[in-house]
Amino acid sequence: MAKTKELSKDTRNKIVDLHQVGKTESAIGKQLGLKKSTVGAIIRKWKTYKTTDNLPRSGAPRKISPRGVKMITRTVSKNPRTTRGDLVNDLQRAGTKVTKPTISNTLRRQGLKSCSARRVPLLKPVHVQARLKFAREHLDDPDEDWENVIWSDETKIELFGKNSTRRVWRTKNAELHPKNTIPTVKHGGGNIMLWGCFSAKGPGRLIRVKERMNGAMYREILSENLLPSARALKMKRGWVFQHDNDPKHTARATKECLRKKHFKVLEWPSQSPDLNPIENLWRELKVRVAQRQPQNITALEEICMEECAKIPATVCENL
């Protein structure tokens, strides 16, 4: 049976107005071109609820009882990695047969949504305590203090790496046409290692590390590039240098080198790459490089240098 068209709010109100002036249901139906039963239903609703608006409908009864909802909500709260299949089986053992979409809809009404688990560094209790100590010590630091920090790190950029997602306009079944694909090779087709730094005022120097980096090489990079970067960025007196706790960075010789040059170093908690805003800068750089589509290692290095220099100071300030 075809669904009848719903009456507009104006029409429903007009039915009530005509009823209030004394017209019969038949007369109202003839005047408005409606069935007498329809007119009668509108008038009865108005008399009962004092409104002609649509009332909440009950709909189909829930497949999962309130007790079942509590059970599956408690289960995923204790173990967020519980699958929908596990919950279907739990309910089936309790005598309720449901589908996976029903599980999703039920949990969504409880404010729970299935999401990809975030990847985070593996933290031991000592790391947790160090990160908490760092946060408490710097909780009330003014913005000016963070603007006077030079952040640094190393990163690897692959020639054909998965640095960004590219979208293409294509017709059906044309997904494998060369124009609609991104070439990939095993292990990224080669890569380059970079050392770089930046502050709120913009990117500093970006250096390619051509050999396996050791402590001596790292100290050489700092000696040749850290102070020139600070000068180019016009850092204020008393600026602070940040690097992580890689053994090359915490070696006695490296600490002595920084001390002799009177560089102030930010004490950094281990296992905390997520605290370093340069990770976001590397992501920005990799997306920009991928959009240029370098075809060889030489081009990759040149494009990295070009795109790093183009990153606006406003992006760095936001980070």
TrEMBL record:
Domain Tc1-like transposase DDE: 149-300
Domain of life: Eukaryota
GO function terms (MF aspect): DNA binding
Residue intervals of the Transposase Tc1-like domain: 71-140
InterPro entries, per database record: Homeodomain-like_sf, HTH_SB, RNaseH_sf, Tc1-like_DDE_dom, Transpos_IS630-like, Transposase_5, Transposase_Tc1-like, WH-like_DNA-bd_sf
A biological process from GO: DNA integration
Domain Sleeping Beauty transposase HTH per the UniProt entry, residue ranges: 1-52
Designated name of the protein: Transposase Tc1-like domain-containing protein
Organism expressing this protein natively: Hucho hucho (huchen)
